[in-house]
């Protein structure tokens, strides 16, 4: 019987994996939930609960086998299965994502880029040619692509997503800033950079209040700009 994992627990699993990866590199064989909690500044009970939901159990007074737990989490998250994706929008953000080498570690491979800008179409980004957007639906059907990364302007994000959903795309990683509304079973993860900035700004404001740190308001001088 499978147990549904909460979004909060799911977001914590990659954090455990990062710690386990470091421990594996350090040749540590076992780790306790208390050690994981200490590394991540979390409650030990929460760590045990998260890992238990995935179906992995440790041994009393020994803890978890680092290598086995890491492999289990990779399998649980489906990282061993390579997932091919289209990236729509070859602007600066799209090109940066296309060039990021870390995605393949997590089973994601961007196989094609698309744009509507004639100046971008035909360009090479990280060894991949930018194709015109109108080709995306037919290619998605033919190549059985199920994931699309959207870095398009907010006003066109919904229409682009609908176009691809009709072609069989089932999951959207959306960087447009416009929350998509698509019918089930389509999955949407909205990555709102402005929202993340607001959260960061709020936490920084709290830090100023706690530690009475004065924010820097002085503009850079020519000497600052020219310094190494």
Describe the structure.
Helices cover 44% and strands 16% of the residues. The longest helix has 19 residues, at 7-25. Helix 1 (7-25) packs antiparallel against helix 4 (66-76) and helix 2 packs across helix 3 (44-53). Strand 3 (83-88), helix 5 (92-99) and strand 4 form a beta-alpha-beta unit. It is of the alpha/beta class and 228 residues long. The strands form 2 sheets. The chain has a 7-stranded mixed beta sheet with strand order 5-6-4-3-7-8-9. Strands 1-2 form a two-stranded antiparallel ribbon. The model has no long low-confidence stretch (mean pLDDT 87). It has helices spanning 7-25, 33-40, 44-53, 66-76, 92-99, 136-143, 154-166, 193-211, 222-226, and strands at residues 30-31, 64-65, 83-88, 108-115, 124-125, 128-132, 147-150, 171-174, 187-190. 21% of the residues are buried. The protein has 9 helices and 9 strands.
Structural class, judged by helices and strands?
alpha/beta
Query: Which stretches of 5+ consecutive residues score pLDDT under 50?
Result: none
Strand-residue proportion: 15-25%
> Which sequence of SSEs, written as H and E, runs from N to C?
HEHHEHEHEEEHEHEEHH
**What is the global morphology?**
globular
Helix content: 40-55%
């Amino acid at each position: 019987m499978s147990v549904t994992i909460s979004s909060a627990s799911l977001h914590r699993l990659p954090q455990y994996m990062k710690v386990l990866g470091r421990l594996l590199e350090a040749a540590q064989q076992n780790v306790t939930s208390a050690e994981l909690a200490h590394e991540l500044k979390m409650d030990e009970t929460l760590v045990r609960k998260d890992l238990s939901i995935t179906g992995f159990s440790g041994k009393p007074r020994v803890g978890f086998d680092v290598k086995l737990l890491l492999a289990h989490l990779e399998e649980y998250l489906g990282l061993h299965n390579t997932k091919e994706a289209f990236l729509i929008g070859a602007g600066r953000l799209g090109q940066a994502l296309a060039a990021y080498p870390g995605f393949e570690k997590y089973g994601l491979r961007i196989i094609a880029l698309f744009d509507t800008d004639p100046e971008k179409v035909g360009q090479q980004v990280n060894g991949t040619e930018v194709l015109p957007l109108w080709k995306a639906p037919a290619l998605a059907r033919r190549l059985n692509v199920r994931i699309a990364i959207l870095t398009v302007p907010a006003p066109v994000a919904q229409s682009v997503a609908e176009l691809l959903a009709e072609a069989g795309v089932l999951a959207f990683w959306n960087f447009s800033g416009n929350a998509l509304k698509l019918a089930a079973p389509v999955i949407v993860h909205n990555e709102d950079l402005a929202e993340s900035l607001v959260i960061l700004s709020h936490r920084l404001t709290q830090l100023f209040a706690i530690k009475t740190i004065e924010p820097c308001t002085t503009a850079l001088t020519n000497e600052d700009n020219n310094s190494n």
